[in-house]
Amino acid sequence: MKKAGIMGGTFDPIHIGHMLLAQSALEQLQLDEVIFLPNGNPPHKKTQRDRAGELQRLEMTRLAVQDEPGFRVDDREIRPDLKDGEVVPAPAFHYSKDTIRQMALEHPEVQYYFIVGADSLMTFHHWVEPETISRYCILAAAVRDGETIDSMKEQAAFLKEKYGTRVVYLEIPPMDVSSTELRRMCSLGRSLRYLVPDRVWGYIRDNGLYREE
Ligand code: ATP
Q: How far is the CA of 117 from the centre of ligand 1 (A)?
């Protein structure tokens, strides 16, 4: 069976934490590829003035992955649609359970791993239909933000019991970087060089992103 990772995120902006997480999954789980899936406008991260637009997040994600043959972008949660010859924007947001089910049904020959940081593992039971996501993929979780492997294992046991969730673990060097912090730094005029891929930093500067507090 082929194996693919799904790296979902808001990517506002995409940063080295995301890249390292995806690279670790590719290597440690011996995946054929990692698919970056920029989210539409998730209900819990409503568009704010200091945020990039959806197509800008998509473009930054494309720039970030373009040199790595094992990475690609799937734009299905953001792509505008054509209806009666007219361009209609993508729905305001998608739920992961729908996207993952759609991908799994399209490619029954692939075992999907949904790649998450520890923070996402710890709140997974609040997602819509964790049981559906758990049916179609295995969670690949990495330690983040001081969350211990013991607390992650405790959460994994709870998820397995309640939703049949399968969890595997990824080892990554702890990286205290988040998109929120990077947007804040940028709004203060500080450089994001070395914290985001070079091309992404060029795009942020050229487009004047994250300037407003
Ligand atoms: P924000 O600060 O806007 O909430 P974020 O930096 O957490 O964003 P997301 O796009 O929401 O980034 O994250 C997508 C996925 O990547 C999540 O599962 C998250 O846990 C994981 N992730 C993000 N940054 C890191 C990091 N530094 N180390 C490990 N996992 C990370």
A: 6
Reported as a single tens digit per residue, the pLDDT across 14-55 is 999 999 999 999 999 999 999 999 997 655 555 566 789 888
Question: What is the second-level CATH architecture of the domain 2-207?
Answer: 3-Layer(aba) Sandwich (3.40)
Mutate to test the pocket of ligand 1, among 61, 167, 178 (most ligand atoms within 8 A of CB): 178
Is residue 5 within a helix (H) or strand (E), and if so which, with residue range? Answer: strand 2-9
Angle of CA points 21, 149, 20, to nearest 5°: 10
Q: What is the pTM of this model?
A: 0.92
Domain boundaries, the chain: 2-207
Ligand 1 pocket by C-beta < 6 Å: which residues? 9-12, 17-18, 21, 116-117, 119-120, 142, 144, 175, 177-180
Whether the CB-CB separation of 50 and 212 falls below 8 Å is answered with yes
